[in-house]
Structures are given as structure tokens and as C-alpha cells.
Design a protein that fits this description.
Layout (H helix, E strand, L loop, with lengths): L1 H12 L8 E5 L4 H11 L6 E8 L5 H16 L3 E6 L2 H8 L3 H19 L4 E3 L4 H14 L3 H4 L5 E2 L9 E2 L7 H10 L16 H16 L3 H29 L2 E3 L2 E5 H4 L5 H10 L5 H12 L10 E4 L3 E5 L3 E6 L10 E4 L5 E6 L4 E8 L11 E4 L6 E6 L5 E2 L8 E2 H7 L10 E6 L2 E9 L2 E7 L12 E4 L1
Parallel strand pairs: 1-2, 1-4, 2-3, 4-6
Antiparallel strand pairs: 5-6, 7-8, 8-11, 9-10, 10-11, 12-16, 13-14, 14-22, 15-22, 16-19, 17-18, 19-20, 20-21
Length: 468
């Protein structure tokens, strides 16, 4: 009863009261999960309990015996049983991932599916205090921040679709307490021989490092529980400041985040805030350090000098006065070319829904031209009957309106101070391989930047075409 009350108290302290809840318990058949299912079964206030077991087929017949053992326990105790079998090694090879990573993904996908299908409020795993300490030490040796050294969270949401939280009720108990409970209550469990081999880093920490730490402090695990709680509070405080940063400093500009460098310099600990913010966007701590170091040396940078930092999901463009963060999903990286036939009487609308490209060409009388509008006008009779629309490329040159000599499109964009990220949306319209129009097409909206000088209207122009 003492351990049950300890667990119930721990759960309430961490905002997941078990009363009147349906709980799906991840059960491998090992001592930890068998203790968890036993303790939860004895808490009368819990509405319903179910068992979820994954057979990863990694230990031959032993894996099948584990499944039969858990199934038999569920039947004997009238507990709902859900199981699934995977060919984990084959799936790891097919998806080119480690066995540990693929097993984790398969396990949690299965738990999510069952929790949704049978309406469980929580999914409980048997992680305990000793696991949490091992995790902290492991991360500490690899290099980490607060989230790494605070250990395993008592409650978190990790499922892709479901809002069902994962809970760890045993995080208040050490491995020793769990084994003592199992022996005292005559519980049976399955042993996994791989837990004893020290070829796995976590097992080495468990069998070699933690026992040495206990020579210094026999209550190492219990003192870590207090430390973990303090670190979680620090993590919450950091997250508050990161959220404030996002609310007050980030400014939306189209589909990107514009960040003023002057505001970043006001932060008390810019590296701490920025690294945590950028971590969500896929950037490493090493990249964050390089970004902040560049910020500290920004006085030495040229006004238009830009440096890019790339993660798997985002690109950060940094300059002396501002940063622009862009999702790579928003950047169209293709070399498609589109032919536009201008043999039309009044109006032609070119639209490509897949690439969100839209360009309108409309014939008009030169006397009706409105040069105050954002639209640009070309001499229709100087154009070929078939125009080519494509993204600009390095090396593209044209004669901008009002100039006599050719200019690199890249240099032209620099002169206009077009941000690096926005250059991904710059298109050129060519007539017989000569650029007649340069503009930005984004989200089905076109904005002309300049026409080619050879296509300008003059006193001899009979037909004009409006491009917007």
C-alpha cells in the first residue's frame, strides 16, 4: 500500500491524476512493466486497464515466449490484451534506420493506434528513477542542454495524431525498490539477457557508472529525483522566455519570420534563447553558437553581406541588421519551364496550381497604360508568339529598363536589396532567349521588378501588354 500511495501522490504532483482514467500499459513482460501493471491493477479508482505488448522478433523463440507470458497474465487477470508482431530487422534495413530507433517508432505508433481505437486516457510506460538517471548521464557524456540532463519526463505528448499523453508513474521508484516489491509480492517476470551485456552504452552506465556514484552518495538516485524536478522548473522558465521571444520579436513577413538583430542583442542570454528556439527548427547547438558569434561580430559586416545556415527543415538568412527564417517547404526548388502562347485577343492567364504560379498578360491600348500601377507593360509586337517563364538562374543577364548594357540578374536583385530567401521566387519571362520581364511570383501573386529595355513602350508602340 505504501508504494501505491507513493505512486498516486507522484502522479498528482505531476498533473496526471489516475482516478477515473482508462490506462493502456506498455508491458514487455520484464520486471518493471509487470510491477507497473500489478500496482495499477490494485488502485481501485482507475476506471479501466489494458495491456499493450510489442513482439519485435529480435530474440527468436524468447520473443514469442515473452508475448505468451504477457497474454497469459492478461487472461488470468481479466485484462484487455493488445499485441502486435514486427519483423524489426527487416523494417530497419528497408527504412535505413537503427533497430533501436525503428523499434521505438513501431512501438509508439502501435500505442497511439490502440489508445485511439479503444479510447484510453493515458499510455503508461514502466520507466523508473534509475532509467531517468541513466538517461541523464548518457546525455551528459554526449553533450546536451537542460532537456537532456533533466532526465525522463513524468508526462509528455509524443503521438503524431492523438492527444493521449504518455505517463511514467514509476519515475519515483528506483530499480532496487521495484525488484524488492516484485519479490515481496511473489510476482513473476521474464528476464531479457541483453540487459546484462555491457556492449550497450546504457547497460555500461547501469552496471559500472551508477554503482561508483553510489559509493559517493548511496542515495544518488533519490537526490537526482529532486535535481530533475528543479531542472524541469528551469526548463519551463527557459521555455517561457523562448515563447516571449517568439511573441514579441518575431514578425511575420509573407511566409517567413523576420527577426531584428537589434532586438536579439537586448536578450540577457541570447545563445540560450536562440539555441532553444532554433532547435525546434532543426538547427544544432553548434550552428546556434556560430550564429551568435556572427551576431557579436556584426559591426564588421557589410550592410548587404548575407550568410545562410541550413537545417533539414529551415534556412536562416542572416545579415547585419536582420535575420530571416524560412521553412524549406515554402521554397520551390525546381527547374520547370513553362511555355506561354500569347496568340490571344484580349487576355491570357497562365496558372500552375502545383507550383502556385500565376501570371496574367492583358492586351491594351498604349494610351490606356497606367504607369502608376504596380503592373508592368511590354511592347506586344516586340514579343515572340511563344514566351518562356522560368526561375532565374546564376549567369542570367538582361538590359534593365533605362540602361544600355547588360546586367547580371543576381547583381540587379542585390541592388534592389531583394532578400536572399525571396530570390527563390524570382522568375524571368523570355522572348527568343532574351529576358523581357523580371518579377517575383509567390502564392499565385506576381510583382514585377523590371522589364527589359528592348521591350519598352515608345511612340511607335501600337499594342501593349500588361503583365501582373
Amino acid at each position: 500500500m505504501k508504494i501505491q500511495k507513493k505512486i498516486q501522490s507522484f502522479c498528482k504532483e505531476n498533473q496526471f491524476d489516475l482516478a477515473n482514467k482508462s490506462i493502456l500499459v506498455a508491458t514487455s513482460g520484464g520486471v518493471d512493466s509487470m510491477i507497473l501493471i500489478d500496482i495499477l491493477s490494485k488502485i481501485d479508482s482507475i476506471k479501466k486497464i489494458g495491456i499493450a505488448h510489442c513482439n519485435f522478433s529480435l530474440r527468436g523463440e524468447e520473443s514469442n515466449q515473452d508475448e505468451e507470458f504477457v497474454k497469459k497474465y492478461a487472461n488470468q487477470n481479466n485484462i484487455s490484451f493488445h499485441s502486435i508482431k514486427f519483423n524489426t530487422k527487416q523494417l530497419a534495413e528497408e527504412r535505413q534506420k537503427s533497430i533501436q530507433l525503428i523499434a521505438r517508432e513501431l512501438r509508439y505508433d502501435f500505442f497511439e493506434e490502440i489508445s485511439q481505437q479503444y479510447h484510453y486516457d493515458f499510455v503508461a510506460t514502466a520507466h523508473h528513477l534509475s532509467d531517468s538517471l541513466e538517461t541523464s548521464i548518457y546525455h551528459l557524456t554526449k553533450g546536451t542542454g537542460i532537456a537532456g540532463i533533466r532526465g525522463i519526463l513524468p508526462k509528455r505528448k509524443i503521438f503524431k495524431k492523438s492527444q493521449t499523453p504518455i505517463i511514467r508513474p514509476l519515475l519515483c521508484l528506483t530499480k532496487e525498490e521495484i525488484r524488492n516489491y516484485a519479490i515481496q509480492n511473489g510476482l513473476k517476470w521474464r528476464e531479457d539477457a541483453s540487459n546484462q551485456t555491457e556492449k550497450y552504452k546504457r547497460n555500461f552506465i547501469r552496471h559500472q557508472i551508477i554503482p561508483r556514484l553510489k559509493e559517493i552518495n548511496p542515495d544518488t538516485e533519490k537526490t537526482f529525483l529532486d535535481t530533475s524536478q528543479r531542472l524541469r522548473s528551469m526548463e519551463n522558465l527557459l521555455q517561457f522566455h523562448v515563447n516571449q521571444f517568439e511573441k514579441t520579436i518575431l514578425m511575420q513577413e509573407d511566409k517567413s519570420n523576420l527577426i531584428q538583430v537589434s532586438e536579439i542583442k537586448k536578450l540577457i542570454e541570447p545563445l540560450l534563447i536562440i539555441s532553444d528556439f532554433l532547435k525546434k527548427k532543426g538547427f544544432t547547438y553548434k550552428q546556434a553558437k556560430q550564429i551568435i558569434e556572427q551576431l557579436e561580430n556584426s559591426d564588421q559586416k557589410e550592410e548587404n553581406e548575407t550568410k545562410n545556415f541550413i537545417s533539414k527543415s529551415h534556412i536562416l538568412y542572416t545579415s547585419k541588421n536582420e535575420w530571416i527564417l524560412v521553412s524549406q517547404k515554402k521554397i520551390i526548388n525546381d527547374d520547370k519551364e513553362f511555355l506561354i502562347d500569347i496568340n490571344f485577343n484580349e487576355k491570357c492567364i497562365f496558372q500552375n496550381e502545383e507550383n502556385k504560379i500565376k501570371l496574367t498578360l492583358k492586351k491594351c491600348n498604349p494610351k490606356e497604360v497606367d504607369f502608376k500601377s504596380e503592373a508592368m507593360y511590354l511592347d506586344f509586337d516586340k514579343l515572340d508568339s511563344s514566351l518562356l517563364l522560368r526561375k532565374w538562374k546564376n549567369g542570367d543577364k538582361f538590359i534593365p529598363l533605362g540602361m544600355k548594357n547588360k546586367k547580371n540578374v543576381g547583381d540587379f536583385l542585390t541592388d534592389l536589396k531583394i532578400p536572399i530567401y525571396q530570390r527563390s521566387f524570382v522568375y524571368v519571362l523570355l522572348s527568343k532567349n532574351e529576358i523581357s520581364w523580371v518579377g517575383i511570383i509567390e502564392q499565385n501573386k506576381a510583382k514585377g521588378l523590371r522589364i527589359g529595355n528592348n521591350f519598352k513602350l515608345n511612340k511607335f508602340t501600337k499594342n501593349a501588354v500588361k503583365v501582373d
